[in-house]
Write a structure and sequence with these properties.
Number of helices of chain A: 11
Largest interface: A-B, 43 and 43 residues
Helix content of chain A: 40-55%
Number of strands of chain A: 11
Oligomer: homodimer
Largest sheet of chain A: 6 strands, mixed
Amino acid sequence: MLNRIEQILQRARQERSRTLAVAAAQDIYVLTAVNLAAKDGLCIPILTGKRDEILRLMPEARRYEIIDCDSDEASARTAVSLVKNGRADCLMKGLLPTGTLIKAVLNKEEGIRTDRLLSHVMVYEAKSYPKLIFNTDGGINVAPNFEQKVQILKNAALMLKALGYESMIAACVCGAETVSEKISATVDADKLSKMEGEFSEYNMKILGPVGLDLAISTEACRHKRYEKEGAGRADILLFPNYEAGNCMGKTLTYFAGAKSAGIVMGAKVPIVLVSRADTAETKMASIALGCIVGGRE
Amino acid sequence: MLNRIEQILQRARQERSRTLAVAAAQDIYVLTAVNLAAKDGLCIPILTGKRDEILRLMPEARRYEIIDCDSDEASARTAVSLVKNGRADCLMKGLLPTGTLIKAVLNKEEGIRTDRLLSHVMVYEAKSYPKLIFNTDGGINVAPNFEQKVQILKNAALMLKALGYESMIAACVCGAETVSEKISATVDADKLSKMEGEFSEYNMKILGPVGLDLAISTEACRHKRYEKEGAGRADILLFPNYEAGNCMGKTLTYFAGAKSAGIVMGAKVPIVLVSRADTAETKMASIALGCIVGGRE
């Protein structure tokens, strides 16, 4: 069990460096983060994209392999092919639309899709909580159905396993604890909590429908007399829709000063998507996370 | 504009005391909060419910009017009738199922329904934000449609007006800023942002689809070059579904140490619903909020 984002960075430094293929790297934020991560021993970058622009933005990038590509599509295809050919362990999005990269990832012949769903996992270090929180899916799947939730949970479990977790607690976050036929999130959560067998290789406890308070506060569990094993101490928060996960994550960042890292799971290797608004620390931690998971899957 | 929950209590103390009808008051948490609020000059309680049980739990309650009722239904009906007859300005839930109270509220002949939708509004004081945040609806309407969102926003506007706001900024919180036909929350948010005329009596600016970051962080707005008037400084956060509002609120409480108060709007008077897990301060603030709004509507 980890409780700090820094432990993810430490772990990535200790391991053999993984190769990171960056699609359309001509973005100063992305280049800065990749360069810092490379110098810190977190990854070995291969940059695809507009070579002249990359070198103009960051002359230091000449120390890395750069594959010149004249379009977003070509950059995406080239970065994906580096993964497909086994040259890269992890993929990162640069200055191109997310859709263009995902299209290359999911391409049936040339892509790196698996039989799993793509889903986003954010990791948060919040001061008042004794563990890292793995929040999913606040980024990709808007309104996942039951089968998709199973896959989203598996993707998160794979990440925790790659980080060395031998057991884990997942909470199916809803508005409240009561199962109501009118609220599909609670019905799905109830079904998921009875499927621990499906997740036995991860040694996962699954809390049924719970309000967020019962997922992350043992004090709230005492107040409400909620006594399931792992209650109030979840590692993974599975959200019923992406707005809920997204709002919780942004509240942690903006109101609770939480540190974070995040990647997309479900392709042959993890995909690092950073936002301009992310801190340098978040960008590096996301790269580290991607490299660790990419080295394991 | 208010920035502290304490200002709500101050305002309630300064005004003429409002009468609070408590349905099924035989609950020590509810009685304690009501007694504290009454002593603090926030309200004049009338208790309905099991008189003997009420007096056993809190002998001090003999100083208040108690109407003996032998069932939850009778307590609910009696408390609602106090409002209907103009004797009470605000309603509070005691030890009875929420559904029983709401049924009495919505009863066509004996109830206190209006043509407005019932919706829940929570007020948060978060340290890092310079204003109170009015979060709606994380409690009642699970998946509101567009028309319901309009009504939820009006209910919140009424609350702010009752609190003395002469203008207000509302943000339609989504996962991100882009309008996508596939994501109904963004389509509704886009339509709402073009309806400021409908809310002109409240002098309300409405931000279209925004991620939570652009609703509450001016720094995030600068990073993402989002420049609408009021961006990053919302008073009201309108959520696309109740899980999102609920998760954001609980994150504020449990991770950011925010203070809060909350009531149900949309009936003839506000309804105070407190949870056992609420702090004494939250319970009193909710009563104060209910009494102020009940005195205004």
